[in-house]
Amino acid sequence: MRHNKKFNHLGRKKAHRDALLANMTISLIMHKRIFTTLAKAKALRMYAEPLINRAKNDTMVNRRLVFSYLQNKEAINELFREVSQKIAERNGGYTRILKTGNRLGDNAQMCFIELVDYNENMLGGKGAKKEGRTRRSRRSNKAAEAPKAEAPAAEATEAAE
Questions:
Q1: Which of 20, 53, 68, 131 matches a 20 to 30 Å C-alpha distance to 158?
Q2: Residues of the chain whose pLDDT is less than 50?
Q3: How far is Cα 92 from Cα 80, in angstroms, rounded to an integer?
Q4: Is 0.90 surpassed by the pTM of this model?
């Protein structure tokens, strides 16, 4: 009977589903963002977030437990070194799903799933914003640059006092 088995089976047997989710988790850790269907992304989030949470505490027990799921040394090292430092103060919600529309062939809903702290475009402030537009004026460049050069000198003298 199928009582209390509400997770998405993704049209696969258990061994195939486990291999799929493990491979997708490895790709997510290594590349920080992957493009997949919405159903797979939601299943991946339930599979990957507990493993990412284990990486906060870098012990041999946690490394072995995560390795039993993923079976990839490079991904484990990446997870316990780089990723764990970024998520150290976060209490959950390590992944973000961004819907991108439907696939042309079968109209499946597609999306990006990414690690939250690695998306520079959404973080803002760290070089992600474009600088404001500059206006062109009819004044010569020398006249426009002169007040700019004097302002830092004035600030330096005030700081010295």
A1: 131
A2: 127-129
A3: 16
A4: no
